[in-house]
Amino acid sequence: MKRKIISIILTLSMLLSCLMIPARTSKADYPYTPLGYELDNAKIPLIEYQTHVQTYGWQDWKTNGQIAGTCGKAKRLEGIKIKIKNNYGQSLGIQYTTHVQTYGWLPWSGDGLLSGTTGKAKRLEAIKISLYGRDAKYFDIYYRVHAQHFGWMSWVKNGAAAGTAGYAYRLEAIQIQVVKKGQTPNALLGGIASSNPDGFNPEDKVRAQSWYYTLEVPSEMNSMIGMKVGYSDYVGSSEPASIAESYDTFSVNYRTHIQSYGWQDWKSNEGTSGMPGAGKRIESLQITAIKTTTCLGSILYYGTTTSSKQIDIEYTTYVQGSGWQKWVKNGAVSGTTGKGKRIEAVAIRAPRYLEGTNYDEREYDVYYRVFVQRHGWQGWKKNGQIAGTMGQSLRIEGLEIKIVPRGN
Predict the structure, then answer these.
(1) Arithmetic mean of pLDDT, 68-92
(2) Whether 255 and 124 share a structural domain
(3) Is residue 185 part of a domain?
(4) Residue 217: inside a domain, yes or no?
(5) Which residue, 107, 206, 272, 331, has fewest beta-carbon neighbours within 10 Å?
(6) Which of 305, 306, 318, 405 lies closest to 362 in space, CA to CA?
(7) How far apart are the C-alpha atoms of 91 and 134, rounded to whole Å?
(8) Is 301 a domain residue?
């Protein structure tokens, strides 16, 4: 009996000692990755995003760097949803806000909720995306957008704005990727290189050139003799851009509304818009213009960079039965639609004040010519001169426009 009691006491003692030893835990025992979890062991979360596209509506969900939206179809993004499909047990969420036509920046949305609009024909112009949660510090979220006239812009990250502001340009597509904190993202995701050096391009972002000097180089580098090197920075910055030289080029885009056919595709830089010789009148038109600044690489920096911005271009039309219409600019419609009225003459010009300069100091000249019923192509006109006829009841059937730096 005594032995049995001692045996029971020993058994109870062993059980109590086991209960007093703290249980060993593993990282997998936590409902989220603890703050001390090593970066190397963090698992990159799976991101999903879905866009609402003009004409097409909601597209399929895309993941980790796939393209959401369209390219080359001139369709605006109207809304977006982003979510983390799999966070691998980590405490992680996602939030985002969009800059919407008319409304500006919307309140932040998150975790699959809509940012933007549907059914209101409002374009997205810019977006910001960031991660939140206890484990957000282990990751960077990168994203880039395809913007009207700019193409694929550069990658930005962690809540920075991507897109444009002040131009009234639509976003057309987006890519999103997540990497571990500090790691370099795949800049050529999808085999696509960014065509614009800026991830975000507000209208008031102005480059200024301060000084240049002629670079003297050894004779074995004859091909580089005379190259100019200087500072070319954003206003207020003293950092050298290490560029060799920069120059501006101009591009004009336009389209026409044709009898029986409606709006045609956009044309650019002397492309023929309309249907010359087909007996179809042009009834209205739209015109926009872009300036692209190209920076050539120096011996310190190889390659080139470009940045683009919309510039003002004004135009008016002489309409059957109505005469000259008021001057409009930058993509506004001049003429009529649905009234069966022909355009008989046009005039196009650089505005009187371009970026704060006097009219005589405008940066470019606008040249244009029209195809007139029974007369064919007229000679080139420029800077507000009348192209076409008035009072002769002759329709314009074709239009070509080009922009060149002033004096060229």
Answers:
(1) 91
(2) no
(3) yes
(4) no
(5) 107
(6) 405
(7) 5
(8) no
